[in-house]
From TrEMBL:
SUPFAM superfamilies: HSP20-like chaperones
Alphabetical list of CDD domains matching this protein: ACD_sHsps-like
Annotated protein name in UniProt: HSP20 family protein
InterPro entries named in the record: A-crystallin/Hsp20_dom, HSP20-like_chaperone, Small_HSP
Lineage of origin: Bacteria, Bacillati, Actinomycetota, Actinomycetes, Propionibacteriales
Amino acid sequence: MLIRTDPFRDFDRLAQQFFGSQTPGTWSRPTAMPMDAYREGDQYVVAFDLPGISPDAIELDVERNVLTVKAERRPVELSEGAEMQVSERPLGAFSRQLFLGDTLDADRIEASYEAGVLTLRIPIAEQAKPRKIAISNSEGDRKQIDA
């Protein structure tokens, strides 16, 4: 599994830390979301941190071998008479793209969202799993070997 890197996102993140957060809707590009990825048996597990984001504000798309995760954190709606004192949580669009190798089954991706963490389970394609191959010799005996 390949993960797309974008050095400009890192630069944007540093600029936001140095100059402070921008107002919603004025970001020049979507910011990245932190993630962990690991292999567990016959699948890859990818977990994205998306705290405070409603599940209906998350979008998953797969086109060819590119998985795109988009999410949006909207501003908190304050009741009448309330005044924001501190606003440090980033608002706006978040985006991440993963390049899925040919060994992964993009048609069977499972997604769940719990406690602010979006978890994707991407199974390894059947044709990529190890299998036994029968070998025959001139005496008609057949022997199994691992492929």
